[in-house]
Every structure is written in structure tokens, then in C-alpha cells.
Write a structure and sequence with these properties.
The structure is a single chain. With 287 residues, the chain is of the alpha/beta class. The protein has two domains: 2-140 and 274-286, Rossmann fold; 142-263, Rossmann fold, CATH 3.40.50.2020. The protein contains eight helices and 15 strands. It has helices spanning 10-20, 59-74, 103-112, 142-151, 165-175, 217-228, 247-253, 275-286; strands spanning 2-5, 27-31, 37-41, 49-53, 79-84, 117-121, 136-139, 156-159, 178-181, 184-186, 192-194, 205-213, 233-241, 258-262, 270-272. The strands form four sheets. The protein has a six-stranded parallel sheet with strand order 9-8-12-13-14-15, sandwiched between helices. Strands 1-4-5-6-7 form a five-stranded parallel sheet, sandwiched between helices. It has a two-stranded antiparallel ribbon with strand order 2-3. Helix 5 (165-175) links the parallel strand 8 and strand 9 (178-181). The longest helix is centred in the first third of the chain and has 16 residues, at 59-74. The model has no long low-confidence stretch (mean pLDDT 96). It binds ribose-5-phosphate (R5P). Residues 161, 163, 192, 210-218 line the site of ribose-5-phosphate.
Length: 287
């Protein structure tokens, strides 16, 4: 058995290789002058079970994943498990307007062509797993994030919208504190509006928890509200830290005291590892 780490997911692949006591296959990866992707496996995976790890964000990493999968099939691997730490395109999980694609399904179906099994972390919605044409499973990094927050003495957890309530509840159970949620309306890709609400946040060290931080708009609004209501410290935590454009500056200027994400997308705030929850599900599958 071998683990192959795509360029988007080196740290998760290395962690999994250690946890599963399974070697990392070598892979050369280059760009042609026109920016097309070139990959070549340096390890013979013929007849082997292979675990490919690659986040499907941004677009070039989707192409790289499809090429790795093809190389693995060409090499004659016995079985391929694809780990997608962050499944990009997951927010277009339905047709919001006539004429739109179901983007998450389009990507999932292509990945399924050369996979026997898929595992992803904290998918934006549970039904995304149904878009894959092979058995697909999810695991959650919320427990790992909560353990980190517990060490920071967080004493209140906030979900910035209804979609994040379960995560906030699970994190608050682990930390041993209260949680609450905000009601959010999305105006467009970068603008959100929060319903005013009294939160029990005065003098509290609060963590706002969500699956994704993209532009930082959702979190920035929640930080403003918490600070207005007297929170002593506000941290933001997510599984998937995209931090698009000026997201970091937006969060800091809103008064954010700490930014935390996992390494499903490797970034400067990847303080929590995603591999433990993936390894758990893989080990169950292997035994
Ligand atoms: C949406 O439902 C997600 O859970 C996040 O709240 C959203 O993707 C965050 O986006 P942004 O950081 O751009 O506000």
C-alpha cells in the first residue's frame, strides 16, 4: 500500500503516511510553459492499494488529481481510495437559478471515474457524498478544532449561521461551555447580513466556528457583533481556510484575536491537523 500526496495536500498525506505506517510514493510534478500540469509517479504501484490525497481547490488541483488518478490506473494499481481534504465547488451543491450546473456533482462524477472509494472532511452539506458514483464517506475535524480551542480557555462558542449549529454544539460539548447561533442572509458572494440578536458574550472568550472561511465576510460581521456586545476575546475557527483576497485583513480589522484553521487547505493559520479524523475512518475501513 502507498500514499500519494498531491501538491495541495502534502501535510495531510505525510501525516497519513506516518499514522498508517504506509510509505509515501514519490511523484514528480511540473508545469509546462503553458501552465498545463505534468505528473509522473516515481514509485511502482502495480498491484498495490493506493491512497491519493488531494484537495480540489483551486482549479489546477482538480486537474492534478485527475492526472494522478489516471497515472495510478495506468500503473495497474489494485484499488484506489481518494482522500479529498477540502472538496472545492461544494457550495454549488444545487441549482440556485435555472441554467446553472450542479458544480459539486460535476466534479464528484469525474473524480469517481477512477476511484473505488472517496473520503472527504467536513463536507459543506451531507448530501454531497451522494454525488460520487462510488462509496463516499466523510469525517469531521471539529473535535480536533475543539481540543485546540479548549486549550485557549474558550468559554463560549458561536455558529455564524444556522448551517454551523451542529459544529458549534459539538465543539461546545467538548470544550464544556455554552453555544449560540446567528441568523445570516447572504446578499451576494462577498456580502452577508446578520439578524441582530442578544448573545451571552459579555466578558467571554468566544470562538466562532464554521466549515469554511472564504472572503471572511461572515466571520467579520459576527466578530463586530460579539465585540459590540462586550466579548473579551474573539477567535475564529474553521476546517477549510480559503482566506480569499483581503480576508485576513478583514478579520483582523474587525478585531479578531486569533485565526485558526486545519490543513485541509494549507495556510499560515493551519494550527490543527486534519489527518487524525481521516486516519480513524481509513483504519476502520482497512480492518
Ligand atoms: C456558508 O454557508 C459557509 O458555511 C460559510 O459560512 C461561508 O462559505 C463563508 O464565506 P465568507 O467567508 O465569504 O463569508
Amino acid at each position: 500500500m502507498f500514499v500519494i500526496g498531491g501538491n495541495a495536500s502534502k501535510s495531510v498525506a505525510e501525516d497519513l503516511s506516518k499514522k498508517l505506517k504506509t510509505p509515501l510514493a514519490t511523484m514528480i510534478s511540473k508545469r509546462f510553459p503553458d501552465d498545463e500540469c505534468y505528473i509522473r509517479l516515481g514509485t511502482d504501484v502495480s498491484g498495490e492499494d493506493v491512497i491519493i490525497v488531494q484537495t480540489t481547490y483551486p482549479n489546477t488541483n482538480i486537474v492534478e488529481l485527475l492526472l494522478i488518478q489516471d497515472a495510478v490506473v495506468e500503473a495497474g494499481a489494485e484499488n484506489t481510495t481518494v482522500i479529498i481534504p477540502y472538496f472545492g465547488y461544494s457550495r454549488q451543491d444545487k441549482k440556485f437559478e435555472a441554467g446553472e450546473p450542479i458544480s459539486a456533482r460535476a466534479i464528484a462524477e469525474h473524480i469517481s471515474l477512477h476511484a473505488d472509494c472517496i473520503i472527504t472532511v467536513d463536507p459543506h452539506k451531507g448530501h454531497l457524498l451522494d454525488f460520487f458514483m462510488v462509496p463516499a464517506y466523510s469525517c469531521s475535524a471539529v473535535a480536533e478544532i475543539a481540543q485546540y480551542l479548549k486549550k485557549q480557555d474558550i468559554d463560549f462558542v458561536l455558529a455564524p449561521d444556522k448551517g454551523a449549529i451542529k459544529r458549534a454544539q459539538q465543539a461546545s460539548d467538548i470544550i464544556g461551555c455554552k453555544y449560540d447561533y446567528m441568523e445570516k442572509t447572504r446578499i451576494d458572494g462577498t456580502t452577508v447580513k446578520l439578524q441582530p440578536k442578544n448573545l451571552d458574550a459579555e466578558n467571554k472568550k468566544v470562538a466562532i466556528i464554521d466549515d469554511i472561511i472564504s472572503t471572511g465576510g461572515t466571520m467579520a460581521q459576527s466578530i463586530n457583533e460579539l465585540k459590540r456586545q462586550g466579548a473579551k476575546k474573539v477567535s475564529v475557527a474553521c476546517t477549510h481556510g480559503l482566506f480569499v483576497g483581503e480576508a485576513k485583513e478583514k478579520l483582523l480589522s474587525a478585531g479578531c484575536d486569533e485565526i485558526i484553521s486545519t490543513d485541509t487547505i494549507e495556510n499560515e493559520f493551519s494550527k490543527v491537523r486534519a489527518a487524525p479524523c481521516i486516519a480513524e475512518i481509513l483504519l476502520k475501513k482497512l480492518h
